[in-house]
Amino acid sequence: VQLQASGGGLVQAGGSLRLSCAASERSFSNYGVGWFRQAPGKEREFVASKSWNGGSTVYADSVKGRFTISRDNAKNTVYLQMDSLKPEDTAVYYCAARLYAAADTTTRAFNYWGQGTLVTVSS
After folding, report:
1. CB atoms within 10 A of CB 112
2. pLDDT value of residue 103
3. Given a cut of 90, is residue 7 above it in pLDDT?
4. Who's near 101: CB < 8 A, 6+ residues apart?
5. Which secondary-structure segment (H or E) carries 12?
6. If 0-12 CB within 10 Å is exposed, 13-18 middle and 19+ buried, where does residue 93 land?
7. Nearest to 119 by CA among 3, 11, 1
8. Per-residue pLDDT, 54
9. Taking Cα atoms as reference points, which of 72, 17, 23 lies closest to residue 47?
10. Which residues contact 118 (CB under 8 A, 6 or more apart)?
């Protein structure tokens, strides 16, 4: 499975961005998906995830109420809507997937990764 993340960019604090992650797999609806981010000099951290059947969604406390993960199985695409952005949200954002995954929160739970898209939030 190949994942292609896009939608990053420069935005002012308080603004919004929507990231997309397009998958090459036709049966992508059978994959649990997640978004992670990595700021300069820091480890990759969990942002949000959704189980393969859509029954579970988990968010990191730092983004709860501001970010929304969603998926369009007809388009084999996962989205991350980011609102009320803060400078501390600045990072490279990665999408990830694994067949029949739950709404996992660790990097080791996912075995397919996109290339990352940079989000920069200015103050």
Report:
1. 18
2. 93
3. yes
4. 31, 32, 33, 34, 49, 51, 52, 109, 110
5. strand 9-12
6. buried
7. 11
8. 83
9. 17
10. 8, 9, 91, 92, 93
